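From the shared-data thread, chain only:
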Amino acid sequence: MAHQSDLIADDILAYLNAQENKSLLRFITCGSVDDGKSTLIGRLLWDSKLIFEDQLAALQADSKKVGTQGGDIDYALLLDGLQAEREQGITIDVAYRFFSTDKRKFIVADTPGHEQYTRNMATGASNADIAVILVDGRKGILTQTKRHSYIVSLVGIRKVVVAVNKMDLVDYSKERFLEIEEEYRAFAKDLGFEDITCIPISALKGDNMIAASEQTHWYHGPTLLSYLETVPVASELKEKPFRLPVQWVNRPNLDFRGFSGTVEAGSVKPGDEIAVPSSGQTSIVDRIVTMDGDLDEAIAGQAVTITLKDEIDISRGDMLVDAKARPDYADQFEAKIIWMHEDALLPGRSYVIKFGTQAAGAQVSELKYKVNVNTLDHAAAKTLELNEVGICNIALDRNIAFDPYSASPGTGRFILIDRYSNATVGVGMIDHALRRATNVHWQSLDINKEQRAERKGQKACVLWFTGLSGSGKSTIANLVEKKLYSLNKHTYALDGDNVRHGLNKDLGFSDADRVENIRRIGETAKLFVDAGMITLTSFISPFKSERKLARDLLEEGEFIEIFVDTPLEICEARDVKGLYAKARAGDLPNFTGISSPYEAPENPEIHIDGAVMGAEEAAEEIVKRLEEFGILSAWFPEI
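Structure, as tokens:
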């Protein structure tokens, strides 16, 4: 419930008006596991009399049943409501609570301390103004304390409270408090925080939570609540250039066409000139429409519909911006990424990237380094694992409008999505755009791909053979090429082993190297197709994402996936190179089918059953299908 106030009984309208005009502070509690984050918030709510009677009764009953305080009130249960959280005595998901005092309204996010839930913590921090970082007075600064502090700095929080908790368990030692404060300030000196306030507390006992504690007579700073009530949090977003990502084109009838969305930064008024970065077109704002009537001005955080004086082409995913202060519009940028999935980030793999209402295909073109959260040192890396942070260059498949995160968080942050599972695998903050070299452009040639293929009497394409090691794909591909050669067709074969002697000799067999291996082959095969050739590639290519990446490089009908579907037991029985035996013995790590997965094609253009079909029969079948597809003539009907 809200805080106690005489106005509720005396003048309810005055009370409601006062509530409406109070400022709002969003803050997050974070830190290592068991530092007392949930207990801190629960104690704030308890001591401020900000819980309902039925909540109080339930808390008392739950404390006796599943509490961790020997039957006394367990304040953490106000936040930890999941059964798994209560059983284990930990926080798993982010819990949000709203409360208010005479001076301010609050939304607090209680976040998990365990490393495997760091992604949940990052989510909770993304909209916070202040971070309260808990430190156990007995344990001091831990790895997770540093990790959370670094993530807090990444998402743009510039004011933090270091709440040194459980002071009752260290006899309210001034020396211990000062030791922790000194260590934290030394660690955080390069994190870019504007203000660090250290407060000695006991969330369980209530020391320095609401009122100053006699136990810490040597401390003369604010209590936690007084700090939260008075810390300045004026948003700078209104002073930024105007940005409105278009969420919906609002067209209820022929006489109205507006563009709906939430203002992410800046402000806008009727008569202002706006631009659309994707087209470069400009117009003048005519009206700012809301359910409650037209506005004279819209500011950051407001959801509005804007109408323009001109009919210009705008759709969902476009952005309306200040015509005199436009964002970057590019297909490459450098960004910080927090990886949020058990499957590692693989440079070169194709992901879906989302900026608000915009979406595009994306690849991490370069993982420059990852950050050691203990020391903030930079470490070379080929991949990012769960909860790791890295600095990356990202390439998109089209230009997109964005700002550096430091300039406009709403238009400078993004998420990465796995193309097949649709899981959110990473979140990122853009540092700056990357510019292409101005002297590099696509050279227009007088002879094109179709003319080269027509001269050869064929349709240029890639025959992409995929299957387990020992499936017979290289043997079949070799026979197919011989048959095509006998038909006077122009071919070239790219074999998995052969290219590792030259083009890909620098690559190993880790998942990251496999991705880069296929990326290079896809680009090379594309050049052969441009030369009018029928190109045969024979690679395990175990991952769906990379096969799709190779397919997307080519035009419709130019990529023919041939799945040589031979069961693992047959491949292993052949074991021509002795590879399976080595893999079973542990001498070959990351071996597909044994210690690394193979993601079988779901809808290949040609499916070869390697268990029942011999190599010669398979080659005959493939050539027959190529004739049906029109590959062996100079014209190409749809497959």
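The chain has four domains: 7-230, 237-322, 329-433, 449-629.
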